[in-house]
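Example complex used in Figure S2.
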Amino acid sequence: MTEPHPQRRVLELFLLGRLPSDEMREVSRHLLEGCSTCQRASSDLWQTRRVSEAPPSVAGALPWTRRDGYDEVFDRVLLRTSALQAEVQHGRRQALALLTELGRHPAARQRLLVSNSARFQSRMLAELLLEESHEAGFDEPARARELADLALMVADALSVADCGGQEAKDGLCARAWAQAGNACRIEGDHQGAERAFAAAIALLEGGRVGLTDRARVLDLRASLLRDQRKLADSSRLLDQVIAIYQRLGQSNLLGRTLSQKASVCGEAGDLETEMVLLRRALELLDPEEEPRVVLAARHNLITALNQSGSSREAFALLFHTRPLYLKLGDRMNLLRLRWLEGEVAQGLGRLEQAVAAFREVRHEFLGLGLGYDAALASLDLAAVLLQQGRRTDVRVLAEEMVTVFASRNIHREAMGAILFFCQAAKQEQAETDLAREVAGFLRAARHDEGLRFTPTA
Amino acid sequence: MSALEHPSFVDSSLEELLRSVQPRLKPLFARFSIPLQDTEDLLQQALLALVYQRPTVRDPEAWLVGTLRNKCLVYLRDRRRRLYEAVDAAVLELMAEPTAPDQETADRRRDLSVALEQLPDRCRSLLSLRYQGYAPPELAARLGYSQASLGKITRRCLAALTSHLIHGGAIRKKGET
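Predicted assembly (634 residues):
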């Protein structure tokens, strides 16, 4: 039976999968018969054109510098987006007012308002709540969780149209779940974090989430995996984030992510890779715009240099970085600087300077009620004292440690490791290596209470 | 500094950005053969996302090109998936039509069989059974696949069949109809 060929437009719609099912069937049937004319036509339509994406070096040198159908598309989109841009800016102002209003109420009332009042169902409010939650994560973990939960409630209540499309809605919800997961992580609730990230990842797997949102979710998930000591998995996720930021040409975010990956490598004991990544990150980061991120990267580089035996280079970099610590000037950063000075002094063999620095840091941490950091500083101090052969001083220090840290919020396995060291010190049998081993365990077990301490000697 | 107070959020000229990036976007859309109507949707979505995310985007031009390149890839993947599913549904319907005259049914089976002959062995077995009416669990059991891997293999085989239908191959049974 001879059938007429489908028209070119019909073939085009067939290839887009957009014909009604009866016509799809007819065209499939026709092609199944092996019509070479239509196969040639459809094959031609299917092929993606091999053209350069590079911008033309000379204006007018390539055909798409001439006015064509695309120009009309660009004009229409520009008109619509300009109008929307004004709306977005207005919406942001309104959302800032809503956020301030929410802040005046207790948490339970905030949830009630967000779930019951249409005024609070705004995409911009969800975005602001996510930003606020992220900021609160640095010093108010419980508040960070509340804000992320509110953002999630707002995002869930928004319609696809409110968000400007399914992709935007899925992206917003995925980020809200990821932010909630991150807040749980910071609070030490790894199970809650896992549940929240499972919801975020399910949205990513739906395939409708844009690159920037995807990168954000993966980035936060990598932090959870890092806390769980799943370092290889964390590193793999960060590689995906790095690839996305490279594709999007976002050098600042790329620098941040390289810095994060460097920390994961450092925790895995790969100091060489850590240093390479930190140097690349520092080339991309702008100290004027992101001084805290630059300082963190430099701090880690100095630590890695010192640990790998390049204490002189570490000292030089520390010398040049000191003004940045002082410029940022908050108490925790200054304490970290003093601690690092002690470590570098120890690396250079300036043991008295190291002892003075560690004593100061230990004292400050105890004053701030930061028992875990105080324990770490005590072990660093003990290691230097042992290096000097001052076993009696270490015994006294160990006796203090038992009294002080037993009353602090230090998890059982970490406390067990501290007691093991103190017992050895009291019997004047502790060595520098044991102090370092216990300190290393404490650092690794900080976010993983499941780790077990097994002394090597 | 809040996002609203970010200078680039207020000062940026969307038009300037779009005009500057246009020579890079046109060949991108052309390369992926995106129809104009869909180009408009993709561009609109990307620009709107940029407006929302502007405070955190350092290099808007690079961001826009990278985002749209990804959107084009996703578009292409979706377009292929839609086509494979549509071809599959069409063939399943063709093979299942109860009222078709005997000769026509026989012709269809022969055409399908000829097309399947051109596919790799694995796809030939899988699709032959599929179009004979075997349900996925039965198919998986007969061919020794897990349910999870059957889905992936089926998609690949449908891609091969569709590609064969579009680009032709060894079959030139009817030639110019």
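Chain B touches chain A through 77 residues (CB under 8 Å). Residues 60-96 of chain B form the longest helix (37 residues).
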